[in-house]
Amino acid sequence: xxxxxxxxxxxxxxxxxxxxxxxxxxxxxxxxxxxxxxxxxxxxxxxxxxxxxxxxxxxxxxxxxxxxxxxxxxxxxxxxxxxxxxxxxxxxxxxxxxxxxxxxxxxxxxxxxxxxxxxxxxxxxxxxxxxxxxxxxxxxxxxxxxxxxxxxxxxxxxxxxxxxxxxxxxxxxxxxxxxxxxxxxxxxxxxxxxxxxxxxxxxxxxxxxxxxxxxxxxxxxxxxxxxxxxxxxxxxxxxxxxxxxxxxxxxxxxxxxxxxxxxxxxxxxxxxxxxxxxxxxxxxxxxxxxxxxxxxxxxxxxxxxxxxxxxxxxxxxxxxxxxxxxxxxxxxxxxxxxxxxxxxxxxxxxxxxxxxxxxxxxxxxxxxxxxxxxxxxxxxxxxxxxxxxxxxxxxxxxxxxxxxxxxxxxxxxxxxxxxxxxxxxxxxxxxxxxxxxxxxxxxxxxxxxxxxxxxxxxxx
Length: 460
What we know:
By secondary structure, this protein is an alpha/beta fold. The chain has helices at 7-15, 21-39, 47-62, 105-112, 155-162, 179-185, 219-229, 247-250, 264-267, 273-287, 305-321, 328-335, 342-358, 381-385, 388-398, 403-408, 437-450; strands spanning 42-45, 74-78, 116-121, 141-142, 145-149, 168-173, 188-191, 211-216, 259-262, 292-295, 368-372, 412-419, 425-431. The protein has a single domain, classed as Amidase signature (AS) domain (Amidase signature (AS) enzymes), CATH 3.90.1300. The protein has 17 helices and 13 strands. α2 packs antiparallel against α3 (47-62), α5 runs parallel beside α6 and α11 packs across α12. The longest helix is centred in the N-terminal third of the chain and has 19 residues, at 21-39.
């Protein structure tokens, strides 16, 4: 069985019993055994449990008890999302033996859908970074070229999907941590509207900015996963009770009436020349798919005070008690929030709410916004490691175009839009209004179908 088949392609075959969940799971485990030593995409592999879940799925499907398109599909979970009975480490020595007793809400929803959990993906420690070079469990490597970063903080999830170690993964995104690694690894990643997917059972980086979402090989697969995990959770105080659209059916809707805005100021500044060329070619394609495409101007707030203060608040007790257990760079970043006063935090948090309200105005004359996902291709690991003081500024540059959409709480998806001459992926970001994930998915699907980027994969 080819690992390159998509969830959308496999689901009806699984239902007809033409394909076995065990077959899929064994194929993924074989690829993990072969490729993970070079990628370091997994921290914990739950092979025995995955095979047991696959057998159970096979029995249920054989009885006609098919649960839906994720039944029997092998998944991976970012290792700061709780999994009952399986350690959840956040890539930190502090939590290296932490074993939750309950699943996070997103994991519960995946299990109800019949998904097979292969294990837990490596990440940037406590999700506090965009390179995945700061982890108690070692660096994560890009499957297109292992000398380069996979991005972060969901680097292991993106690398696993891109390399075919799983069919989809669940990541988190506080400043771009789904979309940035998706772009750098050549897969699809979507950050839904803030409050659309439950964060209950997810180790936080910043409660006001954290989002949970899928990484997958195609837009269709990402839509199927998002359909499963989206929806109100009364146990998550950040969850919002808003009806969930039919993301999957919406992919078939026409794009010809859509109006696209291009915010060139800020988002198109200082682009790598190969990224610029690929994005301009992508815009030319999108211009043939939509009704109109016009430049728009959006003011971008760049304060990181809320995130820094909330990160420190979560970790304050542990860094006072056992600071030596953290990776030094993570400790430095957490401590950057120590001196933020309550008054400053409250003011900046109020401004964040104002920014989210202001974001409604972005779509007065357009339906969607399109930008480069990342201004540059994946940097070389040695380049980022040669000067430790330069790592954080480099990560902030990588996350420049994704971070504002976390502040605004808007849904945004990254899709592949080309490659550098050296073969590194380039990503395109499509963002829509609050609660209109289906619009971003629709244009992303149309663009994906009009191009051939999804047909390419890393060698391995």
